[in-house]
Amino acid sequence: MTGSLAAGVRAGAERDARLRRLALATLDANWEHDHTVPSRTLYPHQWSWDSAFIAIGLAHVRPDRAWRELRTLFAAQWVDGRVPHIVFNPALRVGAYFPGPEFWESARADGAPAAATSGIVQPPVHAPAAWLVHRRAPSEASVAALRRLYPRLVAQQRYLTGRRDVGGGGLAAIVHPWESGLDNSPAWDAPLAAVPADEAVMRAYRRHDTAHAAATQRPTDLDYARYVALVDSYRAGRYRDEGLLGRHPFLVECPLVNAALGVSEYALARIAAVVGADPGPHRDRAARITEALVTRLWDPLTGTFRPRDVRTDRLVAARTVLGLMPLALPDLPEPQVRAVLAEACSPRFGLAARMDRPLPTYDRTAPDFEPLRYWRGPSWVNTGWLLWQALRTHRRADLAAGLRESLLDLVDTAGCHEYFHPDTGAGLGSPAFSWTAALVLDALADG
């Protein structure tokens, strides 16, 4: 080994050790007796898909805690199978977070759990998370944990593929941008424009996010007014999903949410084989979801997947990272695989075996690209991690390695931030962010 090569190996090992220490310290600091908060500043409760990502990282260092993370979240599952996007910590004072439990009023809804929760969901990444936790640290205890969790995961899938198939085409519709996980993505601009709202509505509330992060990095007050209007609409119906098309102003089929549905069925097939259930129906449902995704969300003119506005029955024009997420489906047809890879490697997203800049969440060539504002341009580790996994699924080791190195270097330079500037790599949003730390641990262990 030459001197320069040996020095490079040492530097890489030192970076990885440094990142492991940082990630573990972040997760330990954010542990809250039976779950992990996303951050101690912006997000003091338990969030749904955050906990799934966090469990994946904890599996490498604290597997018992990883299972407890998932168990605590699913203890707040509703009777209809929905897993709420927030489970509120009752120890926090009323008004400590907006929108808090007094805003959601989940206790007034039929089938809500005893715990105070929100009434909406987030992407169903939990079955793959449970499978990865088991695979990272297999044991008799992990098999027992899978056996307990399996029927709850099945109920979650049944809720989304059944009650939320508003468009009737075999895909789940989201009722709020928050359900996508990419809260203020440009993908939601057109559907949101039809939601009547006035910025004055926000005078009745006190936003807490802008007390912890610059307003230039967060959704606008008009965005928030529309978010509030959508919750008002859904809450007025006690969070029931019957008749949504006739009464709710925002219904969109999201590529990420539905890709996660399909990937979850593949994960459930693996879990079923371990716990003694039949994996066949899960594989069949995965195939049907994949087919529906291609039928309803694929845009052959631009070679990418797009959300479908169910109310107008039109595809949304914005090219976002959401359009890359169906690559996670192992049986995605080859023409779509090739086209999505071309989209990811284009100047819009810049995926490469050696990346010059982080992966953005929105087309960086678009005139309304915003490098500072939340999901309207910045780089996030979770969407990078999801694409990394998808690239490995389709055996693109070269691109997967480039994306992994980009993610690790990003965190090594800026720390475990919530999100990052897509050009400079500067940390944005909340510091000491849990899913960033957790997914760094997973990338380090599985490179």
Automatic annotation (TrEMBL):
The record ties this protein, via Pfam families, to: MGH1-like_GH (PF22422)
- Keywords (A to Z) from UniProt: Glycosidase, Hydrolase
- SUPFAM superfamilies, A to Z: Six-hairpin glycosidases
- Domain (Mannosylglycerate hydrolase MGH1-like glycoside hydrolase): give its ranges: 43-436
Q: Name one GO molecular function term.
A: Glc3Man9GlcNAc2 oligosaccharide glucosidase activity
Annotated InterPro entries: 6-hairpin_glycosidase_sf (IPR008928), 6hp_glycosidase-like_sf (IPR012341), Glycoside_hydrolase_63 (IPR004888), MGH1-like_GH (IPR054491)
Q: Which family does it belong to?
A: Belongs to the glycosyl hydrolase 63 family.
Query: What is the protein name stated in its UniProt record?
Result: Mannosylglycerate hydrolase MGH1-like glycoside hydrolase domain-containing protein
Give the species this sequence originates from. Micromonospora sediminicola
